[in-house]
Structures are given as structure tokens and as C-alpha cells.
């Protein structure tokens, strides 16, 4: 079987040409049924995602961003953060500036956002702007004027984290990221005063702020964790004439270095498409900047339709989205990769591969194969007197995710029941391979299936 997988990967690689260095993708505008300022976005896989923003706006997609539907929040407060653990369990925060007591409305859903439970955060005048859950019980939130709080009961109760007493320790928190249960980072700060990054190495039992000597002059908005000790943060100064800033640590946050780029503005977020391609939105500058060498050198492009973009996310290397002011939504379009003419036969005489049913599916699907008499004449039976076929399942970039062996001993219809075990929701392909004696083999044309 290992030999088959190696051969399958070699054959599948003929369909794809690696993207050359320096060839980034582009962004296309998508029309949304809202003109509200959009403040947060999250995808749990390539199909299921949520966007939230002002006036109680939450939008949901189940088809990779092609269609979006409103979810009822029953309030008009600005939704500042949303986090989903999976397709059903999610949390959100909304900011109440209009009615006393001022503060945060916390929201919880267990059905993908079809219904939301609401409760007021117990402390007044605390405005939660970011949240993260590690599992269904343990989560974190950050906000202003200062809040770094955690829950161990799914958000029913919250407790302030222990933070060191440095001069920068109690500034607003804008972003929280964890590498694993042990190592985590948070960032924030105040405009024209100081940017802050916090670190924990004990699962959040205690947090330590950046040394004031190493702190930038403005907020740190976005974080990317390469691993537990290598971290980069994005920020800058929105005032004219100042450059985008990048802050880095290579020793787990003990020391940080801050570099101001020769690109004017402020990076309000940062996200990596893959190990090397990274994007950051510049908000009111109406530009996006990108790097093709893991954030070492940067270029910038204008946003489509002059959109002001503030947040972005990549569900995977092929699916990216960015949001901003006035209902702005952009969808990432990977650079088109020309295919290589196949060096093997892209058909199997006497075998018909049918579309799986149901499709899309979530639990299981059935694949039917029609084997005609000429298949045995052309390809011949194996030692057992049967015709051996391999059904190969692979993802959008050609990685084999699973396979099934079918032994056909007589002409007729054969079925394969496919149950996704570790495959995340998204688009996949499947095809049949019958190896030839020279190792090249024959393949049916691929068919697409969608896991929800």
C-alpha cells in the first residue's frame, strides 16, 4: 500500500505545476447584502464561515463564501468579535455604547448561529474586542480599557488573568493567539502611546508584558505564531508619513525587535496563506500589502474598488477572505496554475465512474462503478481472477487523502461507501486507477465531491 501511495502521489503531481516564487494571487470583490462596517471574520473550514459587524450584523456562509445569509441577533449593538470552535459552537461579543449600563453583551450559539443566547458581561464599561476558545470549556477574551479574562466553563463565568505589574501591563487587548495549551500571546496598546505584546508559557496562569524599552509607539493589531517561540505582530501609525510596523520575537517573547517598513500606514491584521505568502490590510489607506518570503520583504497593491479593508483570514491555502468598511468583502483568487499534459492515459476502457450520492454530504456517500466486459479484456484479471481497481481521494492541491480497493470478478455494478474520517469539510476529488505493468496506469477523469 505504501508503494501505491508513492506511485499515486507521483502521478498526481503531473497535474500540477508548483507556483513560482513571487507569484501572488489576487482579490476579487464580493457583494454582500449589507453596508455595515464589518469588524470580524472566521472560517472553521473552507465552506463554513461567519462575518460580523455594526448594528448587530452577523452573516453566515455554508458554501465557501458564494452566498451569505443574515443570522438574527435581535439587537443593534456593534458585534466586535466572533469565534467558532466548529460548525455549531460559537461565541460573539457586542458593544453597548448607547444604553446604561454600558459594556459588553456576550452571545453564545450551539446551532451554528441560528439562535444566540445573550447575557451582559458582569463588569460595566468593559468592551470586549477579541475572543478565543481552546475547547468547549476553556476560552479567553480581551478588550478595553483593559481586559484579559478567561473562562473554564464555556463562558458562563469569567475571571481576570494574572498579569505582571510592568508599566505596559494594563493596556487594551486587541488580539489573543495560542500555539498550544501552554504557550500563548496577546497584543494591543494605545494609539500614540505604546504598543504591547503579552506572553504566557504556563497556559495563561500568568502573563508578562513586553519591556517598555522594546515597545513600539502604537498598537499591535495582529499576531502570527510560527511556533511557540517565533512570533510576528503587525501594527504601525495611521498618521500620514509613518510606516507600517512589524514586531518580532525569536525567543518566546523574552525580547522583541520592531521594524518600520517603507510603506505608509497601519497594518490592522496579518495572516499567512502558506508558509511564505502573507497578507496584511492597511485600512483607510485602501491598500493591501503582501510578502512572498515569510514577511521579510513587502510590496503593496491597491484594493479593488478602493475598499477600506481591516481584517482578513485564510481558511486554507486556497480560500481567503478580507472585510472592512461599508460592507466590503474580498475573496482571494489563487494564481492560475497551468496544468501539465498528462503522461498517462486519462481513461479506463470499459469502466465508468459515476457521481457520488449524496453530494454534498457530511456522514457518508456512495460511489458507483460500472464494469463492462471489455474492461477484463483490456486490463486483465489479477492472480485471484479479479480486476483490481483503486479509488483515490485527493484534495484541491493533489494530496492523496484516502483510497479504496475494489476487486471486480464479473461485469456489473460495484459500490464504494466513503466515510470521511479526518477530512475537513471542503471540496475533494476522486478517480479510479488501474496500474499497468510499467507503473504508469490508467485513470478515469476526476469527479468532485463536497464534504459539509
Structure commentary:
It is a single chain. This protein is mainly β and 452 residues long. It folds into two domains: 2-10 and 339-451, Immunoglobulins (Immunoglobulin-like), CATH 2.60.40; 20-333, YVTN repeat-like/Quinoprotein amine dehydrogenase (Methylamine Dehydrogenase, Chain H). It has helices at 2-13, 373-379; strands at 26-29, 38-43, 49-53, 57-61, 69-70, 78-84, 90-96, 103-109, 117-120, 127-133, 139-144, 147-151, 159-160, 173-178, 184-190, 194-200, 208-209, 220-225, 231-236, 243-249, 257-264, 271-272, 278-281, 287-291, 299-302, 309-316, 319-324, 329-333, 351-353, 365-371, 387-394, 400-408, 412-418, 426-434, 442-443, 447-451. The strands form nine sheets. Strands 31, 32, 34, 35 and 36 form a five-stranded antiparallel beta sheet that branches. The longest helix has 12 residues, at 2-13. Residues 1-22 and 337-345 have low confidence and may be disordered.
Topology of this protein?
Blueprint: H1 2-13, E1 26-29, E2 38-43, E3 49-53, E4 57-61, E5 69-70, E6 78-84, E7 90-96, E8 103-109, E9 117-120, E10 127-133, E11 139-144, E12 147-151, E13 159-160, E14 173-178, E15 184-190, E16 194-200, E17 208-209, E18 220-225, E19 231-236, E20 243-249, E21 257-264, E22 271-272, E23 278-281, E24 287-291, E25 299-302, E26 309-316, E27 319-324, E28 329-333, E29 351-353, E30 365-371, H2 373-379, E31 387-394, E32 400-408, E33 412-418, E34 426-434, E35 442-443, E36 447-451
Antiparallel strand pairs: 1-28, 2-3, 3-4, 4-5, 6-7, 7-8, 8-9, 10-11, 11-12, 12-13, 14-15, 15-16, 16-17, 18-19, 19-20, 20-21, 22-23, 23-24, 24-25, 26-27, 27-28, 29-30, 30-33, 31-32, 31-34, 34-35, 34-36
